[in-house]
Structures are given as C-alpha cells and as structure tokens.
Amino acid sequence: MTTSRDKILGAIRANKPASVAHPGAFTPVRSVDPRATYAERVKLSGGEAVCLTNGESLADAVTRVFADCASRLSFVDSVPSTAAMPSDDAGYTALDLAVIPGKLAVAENGAVWVHFADDRARRASLLARDVALVVPAGALVAPMHDAFAHPEFRSTCGDQGVFLAGPSKTADIEQCLVIGAHGPCSLRVFLV
Amino acid sequence: MSKPHDGLAHAARSEKFLGNADRSARHDAALWFVRTKRDNATRLVPEWEELRMQASRIKAHTVSNLDTLLAAFDDNCRANGVTVHWAADAAEHNAIIAGLLQKHGAKHIVKSKSMLTEECGLNDHLHGLGIETVDTDLGEYIVQLRDEPPSHIVLPAIHTTREDIGELFHRHLGTPAGNADPEFLTRAARAELRKKFLAADAGITGVNFAIAETGGIAVCTNEGNADIGMLLPKLHIACMGIEKLIPKLDDLAVFTRLLARAATGQHSTTYTSLIHKPRPGAEMHIVVVDNGRSVMLGRPEFRESLNCIRCGACMNTCPVFRRTGGHSYGSVIPGPIGSILSPSLDLKKHASLPFASTLCGSCTDVCPVKIPLHEQLLAWRKFAAKHGGVSLPKRLGMGAAAFVFRHPQLWRVSGKIGAVLGRFPFLFNHRLNPWVKGRAMPVIPPKGFRELYAEREKSKKKN
C-alpha cells in the first residue's frame, strides 16, 4: 500500500525539472561599521542598545535602566534575580523583567542570537513584561552570513534558538505601530 | 463559521469595494506606504539584487531536487525527535491534525499565521469536531472575530479601520464603546490572548522555511505569538507546503535577509525562531503538504511560482490589489501570486484572476525571489482562453479585433469610420459603453498616421 509520502515523492519525481546545481556560498558586501549600525538598527526595531557608563558593572547598569522593574528574573550570572523562579506560566507572566544571555549580535538588523538551553529562559523571554539581552561585545558581526558561520551560532543552532530583533510589535490596526504585542513590551541590549 | 469564497468574478467583487471611494483610497495609500518602507529598507542593502538572484538559484536547485531534499528533511527531523507526517491533500492535512489533537485530548488550540491551514480550511474542520482554534496573530484574530477570511497574507486586517476594530472589540472583549485607539485595543487583545495562550492544549504554527540539511524549521513573526504558542502547550504542530524547503542552513541567511525587508520594510522580523528539537517533555510534529504543489511543479511556465516565500510584496505594489482589496479575489491567497497559484487549484472558479491585472510588471520588480509574475499571469490567460476560461462576449470581441487587425484594408476603413463617429461624442458617452465608466474617450484625430505620412512624403517629393 503506497503511503502518502510515497505518493507525494513519486509525484515530485515525475514532475521535477532537470537538476540544477546549488549556487554555492553567498559573498555579502561588508560595508557597514558594525558598532554604529548595530545601535541604529536596534533602535529601528523598537529596542535600545545600552552602553555601560564609566566603571559601571552590568548589574548596576541593569538596575539603573530598569529602575521600575520590581520583579526581575536573571539567567545571566553577574546579574542577580530579585524574584524566585516561577513555578507556573502565570508566574512568568507576572515578571517585570527577564535578563537573558545572547550569543551573538548582528549589526545589519539589530538582532541577537539567543540559544535557549534552558526552557525557563525561553518562557521568561516571552512572557515577562520587559527583556534585557546581554551579549559579549566581541560577538558582534555585520551581515547575517557571518552570524551563520560563527562558532557561537553553529554550536548552539541544533536545538532551540531565536534571532531576536527588538520588542514584540504589531501594526495590524490601521498600520499604526504598537510596541508590545504578545511578547515583551520593551527590549534593551547590553553589549559587554 | 467562516463564510466560503463565492463564485463571482474579480471584476464584480471589485465593484463592491470600489463603491466605497474613501475606503478604496485609504487602502491604496496604506499599501503604498508599506511598499515605500520596503524600498527604503532594500536601498540600504548594496547587494539586494545579488541576494534576489541567489535566492532564485537556491530555489531552482531545490525544486529540481525536491524529492531527495524532502527525504533528507524527513530523516533529519526524525533523528532530532520530531515526527513528520505527509498529507497529499487538504483533507488529509486536516485529518492528520485532528487525529493528533484528539489523541492528546486537545480542545483549545492556539494558532499562529499559516496560509496553508487557511488553504485547507483547518479551523472549520476542527470546529466541526468540537475543537476551538484561536488565531493569535492580531490581524488574524480580528478577521476571525469578524468571521471573514484574511484579505492580505501578511496584513490580514488591512481592509478594516480602527473604528471597525473598536466596535468589534467592544462587542467581543467588552472594551469601552467608541474607543478606537490602536494601542489601547492592542493591549486589550494582548490580555485576552494571553489567557488563551495559558489555557491552550496545543499550538499550531506555520513554517516559513524548512531546512533539509538539518531538519529544522524557521518561524518568523513580529508579535511573538508563534513562539508563545509553540512554547506553552505540550504539543506543537507545524504545517508546511512542500515548497517551503531550503537545502542548507546557510541558505537561511539569504532568505531571512530578504523576507522582512520585502514584506514590511523591516531589516528583520522581531522573532526568527529556529527550532530543531521538541522541548523537554513536549511533542513536536511537522505536517508536510502537497495539495496541488507537485502539479505546479510539473508546469514549466508556472514552476517558479513555487519560489514564493509569502512576503506579500507583490500585493503591496499591485495597483489593482491596492484599489480593490484582497477579498475581491475570492481566493485564499490574493494579489498577483494568488492569481497564479489559484487557477492551478481550480481554473473554473479562479479564471478571472489572471485578467485582474494591467501587466504593469511591478510585482515582478519587487518579488524577492524573482518570480516572473506578470509573465506567468499572461501565460495563465493563454491557458484560460484555450480551456474555456474567457467569456463569450470577450471571445467574440477579441476575435473581431483580431480579424480587423489581420486585414489592413479593413483596419483602414475602420479607422476612417471611427474618425467620423468620433466627432459625435454622444454616441460613446453613455451607460452602454463600459469604457467611459472611469475614463474619457480618447481623442480621435481627423487624420490617421498613414494619411499624414503619405501627405508628408508627397510634399517632400514636390520640394
């Protein structure tokens, strides 16, 4: 008995054209200044790239920038949490701030590659009201192709991850941009 | 229940939309605004044209090796702990999903944007089995509450006003009457849908790109609804057409650089999720669907339409779509690409769509994967004409015109008669002449080109 898989693959085999070779790797133009472009593109995406002021520790910077965030859950070692790990999804929804580590920052679109080794970090990143991403400054690349070639991406992409560019948003009501759709209402990136 | 698409031709449905001149103008301006954003973003990518060419070549390779690549995708998914199901048609797709949901006792489903599930009529099918599906993309949620299909594949509610939505939310969510503030209404939807997310038994998503090399899928949204929907419940079902496949992981860099810029002028969607494995303690299933795509694969003139990455850029630029709206097409996917894909599924129902075009070619210009859209629309017209897709009056009219053009003497005589009649505008400016509905009659000069040319040659000889 032919399965649907056999039927479909058979139909494809019968109808497909002569084989065309894959074009190979793509060579991007590397014309942008990564640091400057990154900050600008994060802003365009509705987020903000934060610089640490002189001598400020990351923990202090987060506290300063998110002064109105009472309950904070951090997955970054150097930034302490002020809330306990939630026991259910409602608990994550109640969080003001999630502090999430990122592996790479991409200048051309202001995105951060976040690998979710921990399911709880993924929950917090989506359900908390605000999000702070912490990325090593040395892990800034310009075009997406460099991100895909980077060891930090290649070693973590086989699981669950996201290129996260800015806070959640929608323009479904008369093309009016509203920041904060179903995911977080704000997003800030700390390059450290 | 969702109303079925009716059998009226595009022109007749467009009349309804155009009847409201304000709305048509607003719709036109809104979509042109999105087109402009696309232009601004693509200008900032120096190698934009090279990216388009690369994407087109990757797709050419993919479709010509689709069977082996799909088989590899299947193997790699299985190795990752993801179950792949194969559906030859819409009915099978619906049955597979219903079966999975019933096996898990799932009654409350959250679904993010998937035009494929719209194509298969999934929501209605599940409703018939007592399974409630909530579309969580804000635009789709709006049209779901309005009990109508989406009018655009990326901007589902572009045909509505904030007042429409204010009134809709007042009725369904209890927001204050008369409140039409987009931010307020969005927050109200956020609160309501957050409840649905938390109570969901299963999450259904689409697939923007499926990667053969690694068995992963990419899901792109701005709202984060797909991510929440596939995270909270213990069952995630992802639906994809066979043409969503791309060969290598590196190819995803090319397509993600193209998609958001072409669609909305953003340099990236907020969320570009890359999922290879199910989450701990949860199940992940992918339903791979044919439903006429292998037939399209076998049509050389239309094969490239399988390149489509569902960005909607062709809709945003098309002057006909902008002024008449997605519902005028009566097809799941409207606009230029819809007018190519739909006749393949049902020529009788959608024969008018390839004719709903001026063949201006703007769609072909903006397509990020270089589908020769306007050429395919013309090819469909030829096909439709051969297979009874053109009405009798039109066939007679075109036949008469062709006859006149083939006989130069007749053409000359017609021209002379036309010049005489043209001096009596009352003959043409009346209701029976469809030309003057939105246009003025062209001015017919007293002498035609041939006459003027002959006169000039004669006077040259004299001098």
Low-confidence stretches of chain B: 1-7
Q: How many angstroms does the end-to-end distance of chain B come to?
A: 81 Å
- Average pLDDT number of chain B: 94
- Largest sheet geometry of chain A: 5 strands, parallel
Helix content of chain A: 25-40%
Strand order of the largest sheet of chain A: 1-11-6-3-2
Instruction: Write out the strand line-up for the largest beta sheet of chain B, numbering strands in chain order.
Output: 1-10-7-4-2-3
Backbone structural class of chain A: alpha/beta
* Global shape of chain B: globular
List low-confidence stretches of chain A: none
What is the strand content of chain A? 15-25%
* DSSP E strands of chain B, number: 10
- Rg estimate of chain B, integer Å: 26 Å
Helix and strand succession of chain A? HHEHEHEEEHEEHHEEEE
Query: Could you tell me the radius of gyration of chain A in angstroms?
Result: 20 Å
The DSSP helix count of chain A reads: 7
Q: Into which percentage range does the β-strand content of chain B fall?
A: 5-15%
Helix content of chain B: 40-55%
The end-to-end distance of chain A, rounded to whole angstroms, is: 60 Å
Instruction: Name the chain pair with the biggest interface and residue counts per chain.
Output: A-B, 73 and 93 residues
Largest sheet of chain B: 6 strands, parallel
Summary, kept brief:
The complex is a heterodimer of chains A (192) and B (463). By secondary structure, chain A is of the alpha/beta class.
Q: Can you describe what's shown?
A:
The complex is a heterodimer of chains A (192) and B (463). By secondary structure, chain A is of the alpha/beta class. Chain A is built from 7 helices and 11 strands. In chain A, the strands form 3 sheets. A 5-stranded parallel sheet of chain A has the order 1-11-6-3-2. Chain A starts with a helix and ends with a strand. The relative contact order of chain B is 0.13. In chain B, strand 5 and strand 6 form a beta hairpin. Chain B contains 22 helices and 10 strands. Chain B is of the alpha/beta class. A 6-stranded parallel sheet of chain B has the order 1-10-7-4-2-3, with helices on both faces. Strand 8 (160-164) of chain A pairs antiparallel with strand 9 of chain B.
